[in-house]
Amino acid sequence: MVAPVTTAAGGADKASPGRGPGRSWLAWLVVVPFLAYVGTFLVYPTALVLAGSFQDSDGSFTLDNLVDLTRGVYLQAFLRSVELSAITALLGAVLGALLSWAVAVGRREGLLRRVVVAGAGVLAQFGGVPLAFAFLATIGFQGFVTRFLRDTFGVDLFTTGAWLFELPGLTLVYTFFQIPLMVIVFLPALDGLRPQWREAVDSLGGSSWTYWRHVGGPILLPAFLGAVLLLFANAFSAYATAAALVSQGSPIVPLQIRGFLTGEVLLGRENLGKALGLGMIVVVGVAMGLYALLQRRFARWQR
Amino acid sequence: MAAVTRQARVARTVILLVLGAFFLLPLVAMAEFSTRGTGGTRSLASWAAIVDDPDLVEAILVSVQLAVTSSLVVLVLLVPTMTWIRLRLPALRRLVEFLCLLPVAIPAIVLVVGMAPLYAWVNYFLGDSPLTLTFAYAVLVLPFAYRAIDAGLSAIDLKTLAEAARSLGASWGTVLLRVVVPNIRTSLIGASLLSVALVLGEFTIASLLNFDTLQVRVNLLGKRDAGVSIAVSLLSLLFAFALLFLLSFIGGRRRDTAVEEG
């Protein structure tokens, strides 16, 4: 990095992998446990899902599973999943960006920032089942807020039905973990904005608006759009919260897959579950691929 | 950032208050709900019931053990491999990075579809102990551990350190355990804490492979006695928060040393 000696040493090392063919063969051996492990517990199960999507229950090739994805309940589940993920990704991204900004203008080593970052980590990554119960305790039938509104103002939260256990409820709870994820991915991007840029705008007579419109905004845009994609993928893959909240029916794709795993399936169509899995991998894969591209574009502005 | 305008300060306060309320309300509600007694009184019965439920205690112990074993497995897999690749096999770096980040693109709910048949074999050979979930969990925490260790290895001058140790007669094992590991220990602690938090919160794979872990038990309990489930949920959220809060100090210290080294 700094000392030229290092580069020289590194170059010499690269130039001499030929310490005898036996040695280089041994060098590869060190990596074998890792590759074997990942091959068994990551690549093999994934391959099983991919291959199963194209097979009928006898193991012969078919496209029926994939065709079924494009109609009926499965198509609806995909559309609902996409809708849920898109709405919560946008809500999460906008509110999360605001929260990130509020934290970023504070002190770097301050308590507020530590608390927000740690809290965001918990809600975004630990989440799952506890979040479902958090909302049951808040706005469930006997929840804290439900009771308070009923006893104090005579307002019934559930006049329109058990919405907490349906798509509107999922949207609310998902936003609860999407905002924190946005903070985790967007805060480093905001930290990458150099104070000198702001000072330059100020000294040239620009306003706050000028700065965000012509400097901060354009620089952050790729990071923001990337984060929206990441949030989308996150909501699309999420299972635990929905599983704990929705016990009847399978409105979204992950819950459809649960149906296949717990055996509520048409006989002979077990591989339809794998096709649903393939569909999820494709959607998440596209979102994450675009995210990686945007990240690379944003990286130009960071050291 | 010294030049924060008055408008910005007001906006900041409003954002922090509104979102702060949004995030704190459910936590307050959980505390309120889990301390309800009969007839409008306060009672700690739900909290006391946590330790009175042997199944729940068992599930908590299983999850804690899984957190430890999964962190260890992922570190033992990654540290030697990533060190070796930087030193001797740079050609493989892309492949290993791809494999480690792959779980990000494969939802756990999809992974479990492929793992179900695999676990039929695992449980046939190794018994059906819930600790066999370690295999799946090590995969799940792979991306997070990879990023932490990668950052650690990038911050040290690995080649020079390794060459110095080798020229003084150290074996590769010694280089790994007595040179590399101590130098990236904060990254290793960070990777472990993150893994622990993820494993303690994991539900998808455990529930669909029918293992009784903390979150599976909490979910099951919720159907019968919401108070206890909410108490345990709050407890686990606070515990995870404590872990990650601790992590923020470790992370901060690592950044400081990196700055000192230039």
UniProtKB/TrEMBL annotation, chain A:
GO terms for cellular component: plasma membrane. The chain crosses the membrane at residues 25-44, 84-103, 115-141, 161-190, 219-246, 275-294. Residues 78-299 form the ABC transmembrane type-1 domain. Its main location: membrane. Gene3D superfamilies: MetI-like (1.10.3720.10). It comes from the Bacteria. Belongs to the binding-protein-dependent transport system permease family. CysTW subfamily. This is Putative spermidine/putrescine transport system permease protein. It comes from Saccharothrix carnea.
From TrEMBL, chain B:
One of its GO terms (cellular component) is plasma membrane. It is found in: Cell inner membrane; Cell membrane. It is a multi-pass membrane protein. InterPro entries: MetI-like, MetI-like_sf. Its main location: membrane. Residues 60-247 form the ABC transmembrane type-1 domain. The chain crosses the membrane at residues 60-83, 95-119, 131-149, 188-209, 229-250. Keywords: Cell inner membrane, Cell membrane, Membrane, Transmembrane, Transmembrane helix, Transport. One of its GO terms (biological process) is transmembrane transport. Belongs to the binding-protein-dependent transport system permease family. This is Putative spermidine/putrescine transport system permease protein.
